[in-house]
Write a structure and sequence with these properties.
The radius of gyration is 18 Å and the shape is globular. α3 packs parallel to α6. With 245 residues, it is an alpha/beta fold. The chain has a five-stranded mixed sheet, covered by helices on one side. Helices cover 48% and strands 10% of the residues. The longest helix is centred in the middle third of the chain and has 25 residues. It binds glutathione. The site of glutathione has 10 residues, from loops.
Length: 245
C-alpha cells in the first residue's frame, strides 16, 4: 500500500530544466507523482506561487514541504539514492565532486544559455539585438562545451565510470546544445556528442522525453501518475515565502 501523499514533482514543459529531476526520480525508483506546468500558457495558475513564489519549476512536494531549485532537488534525491550509487555521504571526496559538478552545471553551464533563451523567447527584439544576444550566447555555450568535451575524453559519465545525479540533471539542460542548433556537436565536440547519445538512450531519459510529449501514455518504473495543482491545493503551504517568515 502506497502512502497517500507520494513525493510530487512540478515540472515545466516545453524544454524545462525540470526534465533532469524526472530522470533523477526514475533512477531512484521510489514511487512519485508529477504535476505538469505548461510554461507557454500565460498567465500561470496563481496557486503555483504557493509552490514556488519565484514561479519557476522544478519543485518537489515532499513530506509536506515544497523544495524548489534543481540543485536542492538533485541533492535531496542523491541523499536518498546513496545505496544505489546515485549520491554520496556528505564529507566524502565523492560528495564534493558531485556538488562541484552540480554547482557548475547549475551556474556556468545553465547561465551560458540565458542570452539564447532571451533571443528565442522575446518577440520584441530588433534583428541586431537578437543577433547580438545569439552571438554572446553562442560564445558562452562554445566555451562550456569545449570544457565538457575535454572532461569527457577519458570518462563515460560526468563523474567517472558510474552515473550520478549530475548526469540526471545534465539530461535536462545538456539537450539545449542540440536544440539551439549552434554547431555540429558530433564534429566539434565528439566526446560530448557520444555522452549525449548515451544519455539519450537511457530508459529514464526516454521516459522523461515521452512524458513531455504525451503525459497520458508514458509508462515509467516508479511513476504513479499525474495530479493537478487544484488536487494538491490542500497540501500546499499557505505562506508565500517561508524563508522570510
Ligand atoms: N534556479 C532555478 C531555475 C529554474 C528555471 O529557470 N526554470 C525555468 C525552466 S528551465 C522556468 O521556470 N522558466 C519559466 C519562467 O521563467 O517563466 C533552478 O535551477 O531550478
Amino acid at each position: 500500500m502506497e502512502p497517500a501523499t507520494l513525493p510530487t514533482l512540478f515540472y515545466g514543459v516545453p524544454q524545462g530544466c525540470s526534465f533532469g529531476s524526472i530522470v533523477a526520480l526514475e533512477w531512484l525508483g521510489e514511487p512519485y507523482r508529477l504535476c505538469r506546468i505548461e510554461m507557454l500558457e500565460q498567465p500561470w495558475d496563481p496557486l503555483f506561487a504557493r509552490v514556488n513564489p519565484l514561479m519557476k519549476p522544478p519543485a518537489l512536494l515532499v513530506d509536506g514541504e515544497t523544495l524548489s531549485e534543481s540543485l536542492s532537488i538533485q541533492l535531496h534525491l542523491a541523499a536518498r539514492g546513496i545505496g544505489r550509487g546515485l549520491g554520496f555521504a556528505q564529507g566524502t571526496r565523492d560528495y564534493d565532486r558531485l556538488t562541484r559538478m552540480l554547482g557548475y552545471l547549475n551556474t556556468d553551464f545553465f547561465a551560458s544559455f540565458a542570452p539564447l533563451w532571451l533571443a528565442y523567447e522575446s518577440g520584441a527584439l530588433e534583428p541586431q539585438q537578437e543577433q547580438f544576444l545569439r552571438g554572446i550566447g553562442r560564445d558562452e555555450v562554445v566555451r562550456q562545451c569545449a570544457y565538457l568535451d575535454r572532461l569527457l575524453a577519458d570518462r563515460r559519465w560526468l563523474l567517472g565510470e558510474t552515473r550520478s545525479l549530475a548526469d540526471a540533471y545534465f539530461s535536462g539542460i545538456g539537450r539545449w546544445v542540440g536544440y539551439m542548433k549552434l554547431f555540429d556537436t558530433q564534429r566539434e565536440y565528439p566526446n560530448l556528442h557520444r555522452y549525449l547519445q548515451a544519455l539519450g538512450d537511457d530508459a529514464g531519459v526516454r521516459f522523461a522525453r515521452n512524458i513531455e510529449k504525451d503525459p497520458h501514455t508514458a509508462r515509467g518504473t516508479a511513476f504513479r501518475g499525474h495530479v493537478t495543482l487544484q488536487e494538491l491545493e490542500p497540501l500546499l503551504p499557505r505562506i508565500q515565502c517561508p524563508e522570510a517568515a
